Amino acid sequence: MQIVFMAFMHSTYAVHNVMCILFIVLGLDWRRVVFGVCFFHAIIQERKKFGPLGWNIKYEFNDSDRECALLNLQMFCADGEFPWDTLIYITGEITYGGRVTDAWDQRCLRTILRRFFKPNTLEPGYKFSESGIYYAPPFDTLNEYRQYIEELPLSDSPEIFAMHENANIAFQRQETSQLVGTIVDVQPRMGGGGSGRSNDDIAADLAEGILAKVIEKLDIDEAKQDMFEPDSKGRLNSLTTVLEQEVDRFNKLLKVIKNSLIQLGKAIKGFVVMNEELEAVYHAFLNSQVPTLWGNAAYPSLKPLGSWVKDLCLRTDFISIWIVNGPPKSFWLSGFFYPQGFLTGTLQVHARKYDLPIDHLSFKFTALPRYWVQEEYGEALKHKKFDEEVEMDQQIESPKDGVLVHGLFMDGSRWDNENMVIEDALPAEMNSPLVMLHMEPQMDLEPDPSDYCCPLYKQALRAGTLSTTGHSTNFVVALYLPSKRPQDYWISKAAAALCQLSE
Fold this sequence. Notes:
Elements: H1 2-14, H2 16-26, H3 28-46, H4 63-76, H5 84-95, H6 103-116, H7 142-150, H8 166-186, H9 199-213, H10 238-269, H11 276-286, H12 292-297, H13 305-325, E1 330-332, H14 339-354, E2 361-368, H15 374-382, H16 391-394, E3 403-406, E4 409-411, E5 414-416, E6 421-423, E7 436-443, E8 452-457, E9 475-481, H17 487-492, E10 496-498
Parallel strand pairs: 1-3, 8-10
Antiparallel strand pairs: 2-7, 3-7, 4-10, 5-6, 8-9
Helix pairs in contact: 1-3, 1-7, 3-4, 3-6, 4-5, 5-6, 9-10, 9-11, 10-11, 10-13, 10-14, 13-15
């Protein structure tokens, strides 16, 4: 936390002209507030090392932000009082918040600020962390502050960031991944010698293996006729429209994959020229990475090549089973190319059914104590007989309104199935499964204030392209999950839900 001392020392000199006046008028309170601002500045900078658990987007906070915050503090406290509402708004929404573009990062910033910059911080014995190690000391000189900071732990634990101990594991994984990636990028490409296989053999075998696993295309013409029957007003079921759009997206991706694999096989054999695009696919195969050509045509994913292909097969099976058997009792939300479209379609079905304005509808989330693995569920549906209900479907009832979804994961927390609430993650358990959810559209719904507003993302890398809604394109929907703890507790831990993992 040496950065805290440097920030405090520099800020002291920056406001030195009025320091004496405010020191006399506000005394210890002034020093506590200045120290709190400096600590806050250090925390939001250091959170970046935790990757998505720190910030969805890495922001370049700098010394000018801190100086501006302290000059505002100086200006508004000139009368010898702390106008907290003004100070908190200016600091959180403008001075620092002006740099933050992601809506969920803005929520996190405000939450962190409340720990270090509010009236309670002036109370005797107020601590910045539960352990009591971190606090604003009641000292008079910079040397005393220096000594206090030098006695702080050399390695900052996640505790001071109000984060779970698993955050350190996430940081170490991130560092390891970057190191391995660098090593892979710089290693020489040499053919195998002796009895070893050459790079051409490895790439060719991978291409043939993937070609054998991936289906040719999805055929919407195989769908049941009743799925295309219009309602009394001549409108096609919205979920059928969603299915058609998903089929189109997956077929475009499958075409890109098939064509590149066929051309790569020919290029390795010397039948066609190995152009730059095919060479990129070739090197991606040798590194067990998803080719950029495929990634650009696909859904967001951080999986390595083997897991990505397996996941693609599960997704196409999910859509194929829907085409043949009709809508499943529970939808694999992670399996959609564009899950936001499915959720909008669900709202539209409800709006048409009850003749309601869709812009007044939102989801109520009810947790069901069941964990379904799509691989098992899909396999059961593939082998079911006509008009027969698989065993897993017999365990649940189809909801009157809304849909059941499964296959989600928790990040930065876990689901307590005994008490049916969100709870702290277990040590070293990074991503535990989330139970099945009933997503029921309701009119002008006001969520329970005690529920945690949990963002759902498509993948662990939460950053994406900023949309006009203020959310990342990686963001799917906000889940309201029951909790026994206040919102700020989970916000500081960056607790979220994910559609898919990175492995």
